[in-house]
């Protein structure tokens, strides 16, 4: 083997090697370790953590250099504890690994080669030439430029160091599966197979508590090593059979208290598990094996069992009391990490359910909708405040809303849900986009008040929102924005680009900075495509924000009118989203269709006494042309007469009458210059005021009011 290099060298291999002198005893390496020279169990040759040698050998470093083909080029494993590891120059590194660990470790080595990012402190077993194994902490480091390859550092693990390293590794993720997998990998140092089975409530993030033993439901969360298992054996993601769950629960809850148990051999295992089906589900092979079952327990009164960890080893190598103490200590130290992951999973489920509920479901006859929501990461930390919604308004228009609430997690999701629902309610009540944003601005300001807000300790100041209303008759879009990036419009001829909208501060800006929200109106003829999005789709540290928006405009312009819109939305996100996503990605595509000209008609009448009669005549002729049934035509004529009469009586200026044939109904609209809100009165039969609205209410399936720059529009729908 190579001698220890000079400390002045700067490669990872040489840096690790230079640190070995303080540990390696002078006088060269130890003699090869045979059956009599390996501390530990002579029957199996396994070196367990509790049997590490004392003194300098208890925590010792080693270094192995690999080329890009994962072959050993040089190594420094001179300490006695590494005796028997056949690390020869030119041999494959994977020859040092147990067969079941080769795929996983090879994948990690390749990953570090490709990304240049180190993989640190993996608990790993290495095979000696005599078949025994050594537990080490293995770190994979990229070689220093201009060198190529990898440096693998190893630390022979003492029991205490192993427990510390295992707990550190287990606490690095808030994902249930990853947490359970880290625990199982750490437990593998004490056996041949390790599994973690969790209560189904823990797996799904639900609350856990006392349960009857007959109702326990366990799901396998982790299993190591990776290998082909016998038929019927439970693998990760699968539920244990009911009998197996109940038997495990009964075993670890003896005398109503959670306890570790040991079944030392096949005879004891068969006696406890009983049926062949349960044996196939829980025993990882046909050979004689013993198992230690350690409950994952949360301290409390009474204690709560989250699941069971199982460590299997050959029956001729029984568990010693000191090993069981170490196993219980490791599981006890990490049980709270499992519970933290459970709580995070619950928050993730709640946030994601709210987020999915807010996503647009579909469009209608006048507009087609598609949306993509892509969290930063699969766990709840990546579910943030991005939201997008579209919904038909009662008067036939369609609302398109996209927003980005500051932050991530449950606080951002709660604010997101409140703003989204408030926006929908206000738009359905007939308010214009700028008026809705004014209300949302006030809401964000109130939510930031720790005394009055719903999310004390969380600030949504600076959140952004964009609201667009599509009128399928005039083929126009009315839009207002609060600090949001500009939408992109693709015209039917293929021209695309961001809309020119005036910038505005985000929601909840300081009073001195507040300005009226601007209203922008632009044409969107049939065949136009509108894209609303959040900044996570176009923000990339490698390019400017304008370049990111330009790339999105180019991608949206490639969407063909015949393309399935949902597939096109996914394709646009895949083409434009940054390679390393740092924020949630949200995209809404809306393809404008509108009404056909022959399905709409508009009349403008002076506000005179004869306006109702003129309106009835115009509408009657159109309804005959549309072949509307007589009873429906009579309803519509009476409805138009009442609405026009009210407009002439209570408003000034011209009266606009619009009739729309939509689906199974007829939509009647009467606009005027008045600003009073029509309301149903509670007067008696002889009270003349408000009787017209009672007639309207009785004739229609629904009716309402929306406000315009010049007055109001009263609309009503009659089923055909």
Structural features, described:
It is a single chain. Strands 1, 2, 3, 4, 5 and 6 form a 6-stranded mixed beta sheet that branches. Mean pLDDT is 77; it is low at 1-9, 21-59, 452-456 and 684-688. The protein has 720 residues and is α+β, with helices and mostly antiparallel strands. A hairpin with a 5-residue loop joins β2 and β3. 30% of the residues lie in helices and 25% in strands. 42% of the residues are buried. It contains 16 helices and 26 strands.
Put the structure in a nutshell.
The chain is α+β, with helices and mostly antiparallel strands. It has 16 helices and 26 strands.
Radius of gyration: 36 Å
Strand content: 15-25%
Q: Can you count the beta strands?
A: 26
> Count of helices?
16
- Mean pLDDT figure: 77
Distance between the termini: 92 Å
Write the layout of secondary structure elements.
Layout: H1 12-18, E1 46-47, E2 61-66, E3 72-76, H2 102-115, E4 119-127, E5 133-142, E6 150-156, H3 159-170, H4 176-187, E7 193-199, H5 200-204, E8 218-224, H6 242-252, E9 261-263, H7 266-273, H8 276-282, E10 289-298, E11 304-314, H9 321-358, E12 367-374, E13 384-392, E14 398-408, H10 409-428, H11 433-447, E15 464-471, E16 476-482, E17 488-490, E18 496-498, E19 520-523, E20 529-533, H12 545-557, H13 565-576, E21 585-592, E22 600-605, H14 611-625, H15 630-650, E23 655-662, E24 665-672, H16 691-699, E25 702-707, E26 712-719
Parallel strand pairs: 1-5
Antiparallel strand pairs: 2-3, 2-6, 4-5, 5-6, 7-8, 7-11, 9-10, 10-11, 12-21, 13-14, 14-15, 15-16, 16-19, 17-18, 17-20, 20-21, 22-23, 23-24, 24-26, 25-26
Helix pairs in contact: 3-4, 3-9, 4-9, 9-10, 10-11, 12-13, 14-15, 15-16
